[in-house]
């Protein structure tokens, strides 16, 4: 019975995921007739010969990513990790027509292929131990707070989310080397990939220590080895910048004398004004309001879960299983809390609308809201639908936020 239900769920999720993709494409098609706030895309290609689906692909960071794929020259380009530019560059070598339009269309196909709905369902089954709650969580993931960057554009989000979910699933199965490989792949797309190493450290070191109060030296060595692999994309990215601006030049960049000499943090600070509380200004209050629903959901759920999980670690107390307070969710809760705190206090806060999709805890929290507080759950679903549609219109017309 259970296997039949799971099979039915997978089939339904596949249909709904494809339907969501069609709806996104349809809305973007309708929006393609609206005037652009910024006409920069028509500088790159001819408006009269551009397919409608391609016309809306070239927005915001895609400009930078496309240029980085051609050649990384300028300092600010190190804000973009090599994953997506590398994919585009590879496609350029294997595609007869390597125009921007063709490459971005192929990027769209890759983004669709990296749909993470079914992976989230499998991950939810391992943690929540309930096919119905897992199905609900996966269905809610079809209403992301940034559908265009997760399911349409050549952004890092679809690739990072898919690789992250795969790595988390491998962690549940104690396949630590495979998890490290997936997390390393995710780290090639986003800097926050290094946070995924926490799942490996938790599974190999922290959880065994909490259970047995002892650790074997070989487990420590193994965990450090796998963690170093997860950090390797970040290290490579920093080293390539160090070579370009500190070694292969007569006048080293000012950040070269810092310890550690990080081009990524320097570029984020100089060109994007990223830093602790730098974004907390009156002018940015609209962006905080846009991000408020996601921040509120993740903050409340993670803080509440921390208190609940504290009792789970006390072995002297009776352990009553509850789907949304399973001990296996502890690393996800900590990851979500740390991640949300960083974006709230030391980043452009509205990007949580894009990044939240990579946290399965987002959809588990939303599912818990639907189950425990149906009225609030309805508000979450309504907000997700309305904001998702609005964000597609804003993207298509080249309006912020991005």
Question: How would you describe this structure in keywords?
Answer:
globular; endoplasmic reticulum; mainly alpha; transmembrane; 19 helices; glycosyltransferase; GPI mannosyltransferase activity; single chain; 0% strand; 402 residues; GPI-anchor biosynthesis
- Provide the residue-averaged pLDDT: 91
How would you classify the helix and strand content by structural class? mainly alpha
How many beta-strand elements? Answer: 0
- The gross shape turns out to be globular
Strand portion, in percent? Answer: under 5%
Tally of structural domains: 1
Helix content: 55-70%
The number of helical elements comes to 19
Question: Helix and strand string, N-terminal first?
Answer: HHHHHHHHHHHHHHHHHHH
What would you say this structure looks like, in words?
The protein is mainly α and 402 residues long. It has one domain (60-396). It has helices spanning 2-31, 41-44, 52-55, 61-70, 83-94, 100-113, 117-128, 131-140, 147-151, 157-172, 176-187, 197-212, 217-247, 263-272, 285-312, 330-345, 352-355, 360-372, 374-396. Helix 1 (2-31) runs parallel beside helix 8, helix 10 packs antiparallel against helix 11 and helix 11 (176-187) runs antiparallel to helix 12 (197-212). The longest helix is centred in the middle third of the chain and has 31 residues, at 217-247. It is globular, with a radius of gyration of 22 Å. The mean pLDDT is 91.
């Amino acid at each position: 019975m259970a296997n039949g239900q799971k099979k039915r769920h997978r089939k339904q999720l596949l249909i709904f995921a494809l339907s969501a993709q069609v709806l996104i494409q349809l809305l973007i098609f309708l929006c393609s007739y609206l005037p652009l706030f910024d006409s920069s895309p028509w500088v790159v290609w001819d408006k009269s010969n551009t397919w409608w689906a391609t016309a809306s692909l070239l927005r915001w960071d895609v400009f930078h990513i496309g240029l980085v794929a051609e050649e990384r020259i300028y300092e600010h380009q190190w804000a973009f990790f090599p994953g997506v530019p590398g994919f585009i560059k590879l496609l350029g070598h294997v595609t007869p027509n390597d125009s921007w339009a063709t490459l971005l269309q192929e990027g769209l196909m890759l983004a669709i292929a990296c749909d993470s709905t079914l992976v989230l369902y499998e991950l939810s089954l391992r943690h929540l131990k309930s096919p119905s709650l897992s199905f609900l969580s996966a269905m809610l993931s079809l209403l992301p707070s940034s559908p265009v960057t997760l399911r349409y554009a050549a952004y890092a989000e679809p690739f990072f989310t898919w690789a992250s979910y795969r790595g988390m699933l491998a962690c549940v199965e104690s396949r630590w080397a495979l998890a490290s490989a997936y997390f390393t792949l995710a780290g090639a797309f986003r800097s926050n990939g290094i946070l995924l190493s926490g799942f490996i450290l938790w599974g190999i070191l922290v959880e065994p220590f909490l259970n047995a109060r002892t650790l074997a030296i070989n487990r420590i060595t193994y965990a450090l080895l796998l963690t170093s692999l997860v950090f390797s994309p970040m290290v490579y990215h920093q080293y390539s910048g160090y070579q370009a601006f500190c070694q292969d030049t007569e006048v080293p960049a000012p950040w070269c004398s810092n310890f550690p000499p990080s081009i990524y943090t320097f570029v984020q600070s100089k060109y994007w004004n990223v830093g602790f509380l730098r974004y907390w200004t009156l002018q940015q209050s609209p962006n905080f309001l846009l991000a408020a629903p996601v921040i509120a959901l993740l903050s409340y759920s993670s803080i509440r879960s921390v208190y609940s999980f504290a009792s789970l670690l006390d072995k002297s107390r009776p352990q009553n299983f509850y789907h949304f307070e399973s001990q296996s969710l502890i690393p996800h809760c900590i990851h979500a809390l740390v991640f949300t705190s960083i974006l709230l206090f030391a980043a452009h806060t509205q990007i949580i609308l894009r990044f939240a999709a990579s946290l399965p805890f987002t959809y588990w929290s939303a599912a818990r809201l639907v189950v425990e507080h149906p009225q609030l759950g309805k508000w979450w679903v309504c907000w997700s639908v309305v904001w998702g549609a609005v964000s597609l219109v804003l993207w298509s017309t080249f309006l912020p936020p991005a």
